[in-house]
Amino acid sequence: MDTLNVQNLEVRYGDLVGVADVSLKVEMGKVVALLGSNGAGKTTTLNAIAGLVPASGGSIEWRGESITRQPAYAIVRKGLALSPEGWRLFVSQTVEQNLRLGATALADKSRMSHLFERVYECFPRLAERRHQRSGTLSGGERQMLAMGRALMSEPKLLLLDEPSLGLAPAVVETMYETLHGLHKQGLTLLLAEQSIQLALDIADYAYVLQTGRTVLEGTAADLENNEQVQRIYLGVGAAEEAVTTSPAA
Amino acid sequence: MSRNVKLGILGLAAILLLYPLLFSGAFALNVGSAVLLAAISASAWNIVGGYAGQISVGHGMFFGVGAYLPLLIYQITGLPPLAGVPVGIALSIILAIIIGLPAFRLRGHYFSMATIAVAELIRIFTGTWEYVGAAIGLQGPAVGRGWWDLTFRDETPYYYIFLGVLAVVLYVTYELQRSRFGSYLRAIKSDERAASSLGVSVRMTKLKALVLSAIFTSIAGSLYSIKTGFVDPESGFGILVSVQMVIIAALGGAGSLFGPLVGAIILVSLQTATNTWFGGGGSGLTYILYGGIIVLIARYEPGGLYEYWQRISPRLWRSRRAA
Predict the structure, then answer these.
(1) Using the 8-state DSSP alphabet, how is residue A41 labeled?
(2) How many residue pairs bridge chain A and chain B with CB atoms within 8 Å of each other?
(3) Looking at CA atoms only, how far is residue A158 from chain B in angstroms?
(4) Mutation test of the interface with chain A: which of B198, B204, B306, choosing the one with the most A Cβ atoms within 10 A?
(5) H-helix segments, B148-284
(6) How far is B189 from chain A (nearest CA, A)?
(7) Do A73 and B199 touch (CB under 8 A)?
(8) How far apart are the first and last CA of chain A?
(9) pLDDT confidence of residue A14
(10) Distance of alpha carbon B40 from alpha carbon B248, whole angstroms
């Protein structure tokens, strides 16, 4: 059975269309990538799934139940956690307080210490800085904290928005190793990423978004050899196709 | 808490406790209880305005309800005004829920404007409603029939009652600060959407904070009217009542435990000074004072004196150690 099933999703910001027509499926235990340039609708799609922006059309189903009109705080309780673009940390609170807030949706609070251990094991740097204000962290550490915070709700599906954005290549590599490890432990991932190479390395299946529509999908291997993907992402052919046409990322 | 902070708190508590013994004049005591009352209402405001970052500029509505009910109950039934305090609290809770449910759909300035509008509506409505004294207002018992009427000729009992209530409000705020609920409030203040994506029910949490804040604001109103023995629409629901809470908290440091108390000490002293120097002719000066403080805070220290202190105190200790 499909774990997450998005059908013909449409999101409008007033007159502007953030996402016009996106359909995708994520199966349990898989890594699925959402590819596309800036403004293609990746972030809006993830935000709509997480309940942060209301869908104006289409449906979002999670394990056979419609979550299209549900508020964000109810969705995270069902096992979908978002590590958002730009991290959105609570900068005046410490690393530990941020992680604790991540466990808000946790039904069984006695699992908290176990989860703290797991997150600190994944990201030893966070353990070192646990009493530091999160506003004092470096970019890489902030990304770790955003992911760690999302993991504190013990999600079944982790929505990751551009984990590589603005980070040094070496940091990105460690980040992806960690993601790989988490996936091995059974975590399902839906990953929005601009860097197609990174994403296809880890993903089982991928969707390509363009101006708010799913234009292409396939297994990672298929897409890697696809002519259209090469044209859009490797700069072969018309560059203007990749230019932002929608205002919402 | 560091040792220095603990010592500071102890010192402040000692000064507040001993103040009536140090300054026994009626005037000094009057100023003292005015400071405490302002600190109580600003601390109450601080729960929703400071910690949760929801800037209500209509908290006068809870203050007014708290102020009116004791005197109204006395006028109708002859019961001691004290009996009206729980009724005021209950009404304030209901009011907070009725206002909060729709108003928390709004964010930022829009929320603030909605609270002003409601408070002003209630003020105008009260001013035309004969049953609650219309524009003339209500009076309490002229002469106390017993201690339970809380009409003391001496200021000292009021001072200690206010101090006790302030201690309770600060203790509740302290516990709130350390609780899970408190961290939800701070999360909402810094990023509402991130908080909701982690599972915080934002509107419900804000509503709970507003209710808690309204309870204490209502108590502050009751203390005011019981002590003064009089309330009218302006002194209960007036915009200045609401604005004063915001300015005091912002001056001392909104979202900090002792910020409102420090702000109250400074602002009430300043107000008293301008009132004594300029007398009744200087009533407009309060507005000028408020305006000036708003400009100064906004320009130099948006976090209030508390942030300023946090920034300079490490340097102070260091230079002292070096010397």
Answers:
(1) S
(2) 65
(3) 12
(4) B198
(5) 156-178, 180-190, 192-197, 202-228, 233-237, 239-252, 259-278
(6) 9
(7) yes
(8) 30
(9) 85
(10) 11
8 A C-beta contact, residue B253 and residue B305: yes
DSSP-derived secondary structure letter, B149: G
- The enclosing H or E element of A247 equals none
Token representation of residue B51: 């910690």
Q: Which domains does chain A have, with CATH numbers?
A: 2-79+156-242 (3.40.50.300), 92-154 (no CATH)
The tens digit of pLDDT for each residue in B51-93 reads 999 999 999 999 999 999 999 999 999 999 999 999 999 999 9
Short-list A16, A18, A86, A29, CA closest to A55: A18
> Please, are residues B188 and B33 in contact by the beta-carbon 8 Å criterion?
no
Specify the range with the lowest mean pLDDT, choosing from B50-64, B202-216, B306-320: B306-320
Q: Where are the domains of chain B?
A: 23-238
Residues of B in contact with A101 (CB under 8 A): 183-184, 187, 195, 198, 200
The owner of tokens 């590590």 is: A83
- Which residue in the set A73, A91, A97 is minimally distant from B200, CB to CB? A73
Amino acid present at A148: G
A153 touches chain B (CB under 8 A): yes
